[in-house]
Amino acid sequence: MYAVVRTYSGQGASELFDLLGQREEDVKALISGVPGFVNYAALRSGDGGVTVTVCDDKAGTDESSRRAAEWVKENVSATVDAPAITEGDTVLQF
C-alpha cells in the first residue's frame, strides 16, 4: 500500500475544507474512482486541514493528487496555496 498526505494551510485552506464537507458525494466519486483506491479521509486542523489517500501503489496516489488539484482549481473560488505533500509506502495499516 502507498499513502499520500496533503496538508493545506494558508490562503484558501479554510474555504477548501468547508467545501469538502458540503460536497462529500462529489469528492467521494472523484477520489474513490482512482485505480487501486483503498481509503480517503479529510480532517480539519485550525484554519486548514489534511487529506489522506491510501491506494494499492504510488500510481494511484499520484492520480489522486492530480485529481485533487484539478478539483480544487475548478471548485474553490478563493486561491488555495499548494499543499505540503508527504507520501510513502505504508508500514502498518488496519
Task: Supply the number of helical segments.
Answer: 3
Roughly what fraction of the amino acids lie in strands?
25-35%
Rg calc: 13 Å
Give the beta-strand count: 4
Strand order of the largest sheet: 2-3-1-4
Query: Sheet bearing the most strands, described?
Result: 4 strands, antiparallel
Beginning-to-end CA distance, first to last residue = 11 Å
Helix content: 25-40%
pLDDT < 50 stretches: none
Overall form: globular
Mean pLDDT: 93
Structural class: alpha+beta
Q: What are the secondary-structure elements, in order, as H or E?
A: EHHEEHE
Detailed description of the structure:
The structure is a single chain. This protein is of the alpha+beta class and 94 residues long. The mean pLDDT is 93. It is globular. It has helices at 13-22, 24-32, 58-75; strands at 2-8, 37-45, 48-55, 84-89. It is 39% helix and 32% strand.
